[in-house]
Amino acid sequence: MRDWRGSFMTLSVLLYDIQTFLIYKGILAVAVFGITLVVAMYSTYAERKVAAFLQDRIGPNRAGPFGILQPLADGVKMFMKEELIPGTSNKALFIIGPSLAMLTACMTGAVIPWGPSVTIAGEIYPLQITDVNIGILYLFGVVSLGVYGIMIGGWASNNKYSLLGAIRASSQMISYEVAMGISIIALVMCTGTLSLAEIVEQQKGWWNVVIQPVGFLIFLICAFAETNRAPFDLPECETELVGGYHTEYSSMKLGFYLFAEYINMFISSAIISTFYFGGYNMPFVDQLNLDSNVLAILGVVFLFAKIVFFIFLFMWVRWTIPRFRYDQLMNLGWKILIPLSLLNLLVTGVVMMWGEIIKLF
Length: 361
Known about the structure:
Layout: H1 2-54, H2 70-80, H3 91-107, E1 118-120, E2 123-125, H4 135-156, H5 160-191, H6 196-201, H7 208-211, H8 213-226, H9 238-241, H10 251-276, H11 292-318, H12 326-360
Antiparallel strand pairs: 1-2
Helix pairs in contact: 1-10, 1-11, 2-10, 3-4, 3-10, 4-5, 5-8, 5-12, 8-10, 8-12, 10-11
């Protein structure tokens, strides 16, 4: 009888722990999703304000004080606009395209460690939706799926400009993923792990940008190309392709494509901060005698400060550097970045091998 009661109590505790775990992960997932949408929404506002500042203009100033409600007005406008689907399009794929682009953009935030662990009622909870030991592979897998949303949307529109924009986007993203992947291999060689949480933990001393400066530069350039941001915004080059792959889209389906670009920009900034700039780690944090939850909050704030900086960098480059020609874009990817990333990989391997040889003696 006692064995039965003991087993029942053990099962109850286990079920309670699973329930608590699922509730916490659900709350964290909803919070990350909501923050991602809010950051992407106000990135549109920041983009216009940065452009206005660089061009000596005022920018949005009508909706709310200082135009702070402009993103909400844009969202209402998107929802209120007429829903148009071309008669000659593939209607199912026409709808799936922007949905897939938005879905893959939101999925990438699942493996990013947003801060140190917090302690609630004596239990430790990490500020990361899931810590898989192949987090980098997950990121690359999801990012590579994003091109299908663009390709499907451009092909399903049955419009030659949309199709050309989709082909440009797919070839551009595939080309720059090669150099980006090789630069990450060099980072993995230095860290010895594919887990993003472990990569961040290893940067409590030196940040990875110190040991992989060339890899960081390659990754940054490829991030601009992967997110279709200027000067790599050839897929939606209005002077040649009207609007590119989303020429035929209107209402919120167009909004999904535009929104996905800003989400990708936000996630790319978070990944750059995680891989090369210590993530949530702060300098001299060990010297602060603070509560663990206070340190977790400071870590989150510090990570988002880095993210905001890189988002500003994306916008600054857009309004500073002119768009490349398509042949220049492909030459940069295949003839410069890929050889440079291979050279960086070779140098990283030689330095690590030399370090091991010195340890033997």
